[in-house]
Design goal:
- The chain is α/β, with parallel strands linked by helices.
- The protein has three domains: 161 residues, HUPs (Rossmann fold, 3-Layer(aba) Sandwich), CATH 3.40.50; 139 residues, Argininosuccinate synthetase, chain A, domain 2 (Alpha-Beta Complex); 35 residues, no CATH class.
- Helices cover 41% and strands 19% of the residues.
- It is built from 14 helices and 14 strands.
- Strands 3-2-1-4-5 form a five-stranded parallel sheet, sandwiched between helices. A five-stranded antiparallel sheet has the order 10-9-8-13-14. Strands 6-7-12-11 form a four-stranded antiparallel sheet, with no helix packed on it.
- A hairpin with a 2-residue loop joins strand 8 and strand 9.
- Helix 4 crosses helix 5 and helix 8 packs across helix 9.
- The chain is elongated, with a radius of gyration of 26 Å.
């Protein structure tokens, strides 16, 4: 019997061309595995396409709720944002994909896992770190790094290769953006985005959203309920996290929320420019931050921001299955015990506007915060505090003055 390889299969031109390439260069039985993270109609017709291309079998695994509950939720709790802008839509999905590829490889008795990530990108790192962490015995095949056998360098090359192997598919050689989509976001790279001096062609580019200029003149109000740092309701209706994200995507996209144009630092050392649409995620993250600022004390909030930033770096680098990432997730989870309450927001032409936040665990005390003297705070108490807080400054200034007199 032939040995088996599990291919991370999206149904796009790259992974379609990889199927005959694997059979030709490795003589493997190819088992395709497509992970459904909420790509929508992108998965239509995959089974027929995979079989037509020479795959022995295709798995389509619906992991949308697992993605939301075990990957998105911890990232929201950590307010995880890479380089102050990117909400990690692709990054947080890759470890889950790697995990599922390993599960199918074990089920099928495969000896290798293959992915179609290029040799210049982050995804090769993310996929392979997940596989190494979960199945160090499995061989990893990355065609784009196989210079001796992978000769295709363009869509035209891949289409010609497929046709030469009797695979005639409805793919176009026209240039288009390189995109990655899941329930959380859609990313765009390529074309005019490769030149940072050029503005994005939003009329051609946007999929989930409209530009703020084209958003309606009417505002919309939202109320998001949280329990222990996880969204559980929208406008008073209890629903699972995946449904909340789906609804927020539709509402936020219609109002131009969550469009980010950034030049980021890739793991492999180069800078790259991308446009990300994350309408629902942007709303959810902002609501969570507003709730945390009401509940956390000063020291916890300050230290958590340090942890959040490090956690975001780890997720971006594909280090989900590492001891440090486990430890940081545990710390973040411990801070969410009382992050419960409701956040009200108004959306208007790309803007998210606060409308009020409530929580039974709020540390805000109107009696203390009021300019009027409250029962728990006397204005005169500040005098002694300032004397102690500024003591080192005062001592230093006195010493400096004495030193100047001796000169």
């Amino acid at each position: 019997m032939k040995e088996k390889v599990v291919l991370a299969y999206s149904g796009g031109l790259d992974t379609t061309a990889i199927i005959p390439w694997l059979k030709e260069n490795y003589d493997y039985e190819v088992i395709c595995c497509c992970i459904d993270l909420g790509q929508g109609n992108e998965l239509d017709g995959l089974e027929e396409r995979a079989k037509l291309s020479g795959a022995e079998k295709l798995y389509i695994l619906d992991v949308v709720d697992e993605f939301c509950d075990e990957y998105i939720a911890p990232c929201v709790q950590a307010d995880a944002t890479y380089e102050n802008a990117y909400l990690l839509g692709t990054s947080m999905a890759r470890p889950l994909i790697g995990k599922k590829l390993v599960e199918i490889a074990r089920k099928e008795g495969a000896v290798a896992i293959c992915h179609g990530a290029t040799g210049k990108g982050n995804d090769q790192v993310r996929f392979e770190l997940a596989i190494k962490a979960l199945a160090p015995d499995l061989k990893i095949i990355a065609p784009w790094r196989c210079n001796d056998t992978w000769k295709m360098q363009s869509r035209e090359d891949e289409i010609a290769y497929c046709e030469a192997h009797g695979i005639h598919l409805p793919f176009s050689s026209d240039n288009s953006y390189s995109r990655d989509r899941n329930l959380w976001h859609i990313s765009h790279e390529g074309l005019e985005l490769e030149d940072p001096a050029k503005a994005p062609n939003y009329d051609h580019l946007l999929v989930l959203s409209v530009s703020p200029q084209k958003a309606p003149d009417e505002e919309v109000d939202l109320t998001i309920g949280f329990e222990k740092g996880v969204a559980v309701s929208l406008n008073g209706e209890t629903m699972k996290l995946s449904e909340i994200i789906k609804k927020l995507n539709a509402i936020g996209g219609a109002h131009g929320i969550g469009i980010v144009d950034i030049v980021e630092n890739r793991v492999v050392g180069m800078k790259s420019r991308g446009v990300y649409e994350t309408p629902g995620g942007t709303i959810l993250m902002e609501a969570h931050k507003q709730l945390e600022e009401l509940i956390h004390d000063r020291d916890t909030l300050a230290f958590k921001k340090t942890v959040d930033a490090r956690f975001a770096d780890l997720v971006y680098e594909g280090k989900w299955f590492t001891p440090l990432c486990d430890a940081l997730r545990a710390f973040v989870a411990s801070t969410q015990e009382y992050v419960t309450g409701e956040v009200k927001l108004k959306l208007y032409k790309g803007n998210i506007i606060k409308q009020g936040t409530t929580s039974p665990y709020s540390l805000y005390n109107e009696s203390i915060a009021s300019f009027k003297t409250g029962d728990l705070y006397d204005h005169h108490d500040a005098e002694g505090f300032i004397n102690l807080f500024g003591l080192s400054l005062k001592v230093r200034a006195m010493k400096m003055a004495e030193a100047e007199k001796l000169q």
